From TrEMBL:
InterPro entries: Glyco_trans_2-like, Nucleotide-diphossugar_trans. It holds the Pfam family Glycos_transf_2. The lineage of its organism: Bacteria, Pseudomonadati, Pseudomonadota, Alphaproteobacteria, Caulobacterales. It comes from Phenylobacterium koreense. Keywords: Glycosyltransferase, Transferase. Belongs to the glycosyltransferase 2 family. Residues 4-112 form the Glycosyltransferase 2-like domain. CDD domains: Glyco_tranf_GTA_type (cd00761). Coiled coil: none annotated. This is GT2 family glycosyltransferase. It comes from the Bacteria. Gene3D superfamilies: Spore Coat Polysaccharide Biosynthesis Protein SpsA, Chain A.
Amino acid sequence: MRVSVVVATAGRAELTGLTVARLGRQTRIPDEIVVVGASSEDTHGIEAHGLPLRVDHARKGSCSQRNHALDLVEQTSDMIAIFDDDFVPAFDFIERAEALFAAHPEIVGVNGRLIADGAKGPGIGYDAACEMSEADRLRPDGDLAPLESLYGCNMVLRSSAIQGLRFDENLPLYGWQEDTDFTFRLKARGKLVKAPGLAGVHMGIKSGRTPGKKLGYSQIANPLYLLKKKTIPPKLAATLMVNNTLANFIKSFQPEPYIDRKGRLAGNMMALRDAALGKVDPRRVIDIG
């Protein structure tokens, strides 16, 4: 197979450079690595290190940047791995993913097993993430678990299955739940699975993230938009909105130092007000201060 790795990045040029360099230690080197930033600052200093690296730029937003990368590699790849700029894959991740796709033609999308996910806490440093990844020795080949959608920090896609399928650019900036929307639509074309033999660490770095008020607005506006599109079930949309709003309200009294709970709650309230007035729109986050 011809294998491409795609990384969309914003505000993390140094970290992305480390992530790219580490891909050179994969047991199966990608045939192409595409890094897409929103400006030259996002990609400043990223070097190829002898790897088949292409650096490009697109309109800011995870959806638009990923779409640009997919446009570049879709026709020349059999398998596309989309990694967050703060995801550290195990050294055999790509080799195992390629073998899995070759053995299971019915599979169109795969998530690996997260050794640790810093998005659920204060984040994990790069060196610590590398140590965790290298210390992990659990590599079960079987026990593929079916999924309804994929988690966006590491998604491996069969190129032939995504023809004409793109991330929804009406979900701007961080594009909250864009991975859910994309892979719910992808599931109509084949199987989505979690493969424990593929492993990595999601650092969950907080720098470069969408500000609290903007993210809070997206936590309401995006599920409502996807519900209207009928790409996520009503129960999931309700769960996302209720759980996040309650968490932001309860934790705003004693917020974590790395999360702007009050900003998120304010964004939640803005979106709920807009929904009541019939004018809620995910694109409004662009103009929220």
